[in-house]
């Protein structure tokens, strides 16, 4: 999908992660030194990252564990192939 179209469609989705992925695509485009119109999103994936382990105090001096997972977002952009008519 064209990067400009992908960012525009993700910007108006109601999902929480859509805006985050839109920002990551914009960052990948600018880091590559491209314009959004001339690149396509080659691949996009979200992998598990490290987990922060915390404790929550409970009754009678005990504690229960809290896991705060993080994630890695990978976006790969590539030059769009020119269509020859």
From TrEMBL:
Q: Which SUPFAM superfamilies match?
A: Ribosomal protein L22 (SSF54843)
Q: Which GO terms describe its biological process?
A: translation
Name a Pfam family for this protein.
Ribosomal_L22
Keywords attached to this Swiss-Prot or TrEMBL record, sorted alphabetically, are:
Ribonucleoprotein, Ribosomal protein, RNA-binding, rRNA-binding
Q: Which GO terms describe its cellular component?
A: cytosolic large ribosomal subunit
Q: Which PROSITE patterns match?
A: RIBOSOMAL_L22
The reply to whether Zinc figures as a keyword in the UniProt entry is no
Gene3D superfamilies noted in UniProt: Ribosomal protein L22/L17
What CDD domains does the entry give? Ribosomal_L22 (cd00336)
One GO molecular function term?
structural constituent of ribosome
Enumerate the InterPro entries for this protein: Ribosomal_uL22 (IPR001063), Ribosomal_uL22_bac/chlpt-type (IPR005727), Ribosomal_uL22_bac/org-type (IPR047867), Ribosomal_uL22_CS (IPR018260), Ribosomal_uL22_sf (IPR036394)
What are the transmembrane regions?
none
Oligomeric state and partners? Part of the 50S ribosomal subunit.
Q: Which family does it belong to?
A: Belongs to the universal ribosomal protein uL22 family.
Q: Which NCBIfam families match?
A: rplV_bact (TIGR01044)
Q: What does this protein do?
A: This protein binds specifically to 23S rRNA; its binding is stimulated by other ribosomal proteins, e.g., L4, L17, and L20. It is important during the early stages of 50S assembly. It makes multiple contacts with different domains of the 23S rRNA in the assembled 50S subunit and ribosome.
Q: Can you say what this protein is called?
A: 50S ribosomal protein L22
